[in-house]
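Continuing the series of single-chain predictions for the mutant panel. This is the parent chain; the variants come on the following pages.
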Amino acid sequence: MHLAYPAVLAALLFCTGLYGVLARRNAILVLMSVELMLNAVNLNLVAFDVWLRDTLHAGQALTLFVIAIAAAEIGIGLAIVLMVYRNRGTSDVDRLRDSVESDATDEAAAQSAGADAEAAARAKKAEATA
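Parent structure:
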């Protein structure tokens, strides 16, 4: 078996997953694209393991570890997406980013307003004592 066939297929899978991560706005689709990228890596690991005729089958063993880590990652990722959806009402990545940025600017504005009010109170107190 030629090494080029699984390598080209893995490259296509990885590029498709990369496009999905960069272009998609739904958090669940982004997680699925990451899984597609991990599967492309697994395909490369097994293909090179077979091509090198490794007696320890290290590529296949490493593939099992990648699959286990991917399963844990998707479980935790889906739990986080569900909690964000329940709290914010959307799983759109752009809207979540905008809401976080607007929350940060609101907090910064509140802090600066509090500092301005505090400075004004000090000025009034200084005028009253003078």
